[in-house]
Design a protein that fits this description.
Number of helices: 14
CATH architecture of the largest domain: Up-down Bundle
Radius of gyration: 35 Å
Mean pLDDT: 80
Largest sheet: 6 strands, antiparallel
Helix content: 40-55%
Number of strands: 13
Oligomer: single chain
Number of domains: 3
CATH class of the largest domain: Mainly Alpha
Length: about 500
């Protein structure tokens, strides 16, 4: 008995589809060379470095200050501070939601500790008139600590009891309100002050830079330039205190609640320029200038967990991840070649094209969006190998099903594709949607896994349409495959047929 098959519209131009894919690959390679991308940017867990979590400090009654806008502003300021230090490939990102939002800073390399210490500073700079000063020990042991005139008894009592030799009193908080009278120590803990409400604020600084005073024993300082508002306020402050007795003729420069310096003002300074001195080292002066240049953080932060990954450990993890990926890929290749034989070479070529596209995208996205490859991302790529292989299996098995139904190879390739592509598209879309949802709701390294999995799954769709299907169509036109050779992967034995199908007939 014989039956005739309905004519099937076959793809007549697979070479055109392959040419389009080739042009896309050439364009991607050209972009890589134009941008000078030479290597994939590696995350902290693969190259080593320092990671720290900053948790917003919430004082009683200040819960409303921890808003998404304030966190985003802090992220922007911290990112500018890090970039100003010339630290490449660092990451500053907010995680979580509501009052539980945190800022995670990841700095690769060996200088991460310095950067982490710097970026978390609130950098609330204030200029305050000195009302009283004394040595940094409690008044019971220091007779010079006399009550200050015009100050409440509560402030005087707090001033007398302040012990600047204790470490907890030398940790600036940045929580001082500019409108309040402040009791504070200097950074060295040698002197304590009563300070009037702030008259000049850090937000009124337009420029900040570090400089070296060679005439003063190579001392480093920070030069400040105020904006119009700050120039007027600083000029008025310095003009008023010049004629006052000590210590009220001093202007204290307060950073995060600690007095950096308190110079005596001998003449008015209307120019809008000032200097901060205080026995700075070069790094201290440069770091202070950098944090002041970009303004104060809108919130105070407590430092959470600090994680350090050595470059050696990062390299070991990278090697382990690459080895796992190579083994997974090798097993897939061996299986396809053993099961599908010559047809399996289409799978090998497809995986090679997918790997090349993924690598080029890693290079390009590293330049475009700062993408970094993490160990979780490598895991996502390894999982995606299985997703890609599943697409090939679905298509190849559909071809075999059609051949078992009596269709010749060239017809089976097209009818099998028509039936398989919907399954492939739906399966890949489900994987992509899952990856997108996981990326949105997750934090940390899980997002790297989700991103890479989604990206590789999307690449699978491109490869199956623009490479796998056209290559199978071309293979089906070859006499070697049409003859049903034993090693073709579409022989009667491998398909499960008693005899090869003849064009338009079934035996």
């Amino acid at each position: 008995m014989s039956t005739t098959n309905k004519p099937v519209k076959t793809a007549s131009r697979p070479t055109r589809t392959l040419a389009i894919l080739a042009l896309v690959l050439v364009a991607m390679v050209s972009l890589v060379f134009i941008q000078g991308s030479t290597s994939v940017r590696l995350g902290l867990d693969l190259r080593g470095g320092t990671s720290v979590t900053l948790q917003p400090r919430i004082a009683p009654g200040d819960e409303g200050k921890v808003t998404s806008e304030a966190i985003d502003q802090a992220v922007s300021i911290i990112r500018q501070r890090v970039n100003s230090l010339g630290v490449a490939e660092s990451e500053v990102a907010a995680q979580g939601s509501g009052t539980n939002r945190q800022i995670v800073i990841s700095v690769p390399g060996e200088n991460g500790r310095r950067v982490v210490d710097l970026v978390g500073q609130t950098a609330e700079l204030r200029f305050r008139q000195v009302l009283a000063s004394a040595s940094g020990i409690p008044a019971a042991a220091d007779a010079a600590a006399t009550p200050a005139a015009g100050v409440s008894a509560e402030i005087n009592a707090k001033f007398a009891a302040l012990d600047c030799t204790k470490a907890e009193n030398l940790q600036g908080t940045g929580a001082d309100a500019p409108t309040d009278t402040l009791v504070a120590c200097d950074r060295a803990g040698s002197t304590k002050y009563i300070l009037a409400p702030a008259e000049v604020l850090g937000r009124q600084i337009s420029k900040a830079s570090a400089g070296l005073d060679s005439q003063a024993g190579s001392a480093w300082f920070v030069s400040l330039t105020f904006n119009g508002e700050g120039t007027s306020a600083f000029g008025a402050l310095t003009s008023r205190v010049t004629s006052l007795p000590e210590p009220t003729n001093q202007v204290a420069i307060v950073l995060d609640g600690l007095v950096v310096s308190a110079p005596r003002i001998t003449e008015a300074i209307p120019s809008g320029n000032a200097q901060i001195t205080g026995s700075f080292t070069q790094l201290e002066a440069q770091d202070l200038a950098n944090v002041l240049k970009y303004g104060a953080l809108p919130l105070a932060f407590d430092r959470g967990e600090v994680q350090q990954v050595s470059p050696t450990l990062g390299a070991d993890q990278l090697d382990a991840g690459l080895l796992a990926g190579a083994l997974g890929l090798l097993l897939v290749v061996i299986f396809t070649l053993l099961y599908y034989r010559a047809l399996g070479f289409v799978t090998v070529g497809s995986l090679a094209i997918a790997g090349l596209m993924l690598y080029l995208l890693f290079l390009l996205m590293g330049e475009w969006i700062g993408f970094t490859l993490t160990l979780a991302g490598i895991a996502g790529a390894i999982v995606a190998i299985g997703v890609t292989a599943d697409s090939f299996i679905v298509y190849f098995e559909r071809i075999r099903d059609e051949m078992r139904d009596g269709k010749p190879l060239r017809v089976a390739v097209e009818t099998g594709w028509q039936r398989a592509r919907r399954t492939i598209i739906v399966a890949d879309l489900v994987s992509v949607i899952s990856s997108v949802v996981l990326y949105i709701v997750s934090v940390g390294s899980v997002r790297g896994f989700a991103f890479t999995l989604g990206l590789t799954t999307a690449i699978d769709l491109i490869v199956i349409f623009f490479f796998t299907k056209p290559m199978v169509t071309l293979f089906a036109r070859l006499k070697y495959f049409q003859s049903g050779s034993a090693w073709s992967g579409v022989s009667p034995r491998s398909v499960g047929m008693s005899a090869p199908a003849v064009e338009g007939k079934v035996a």
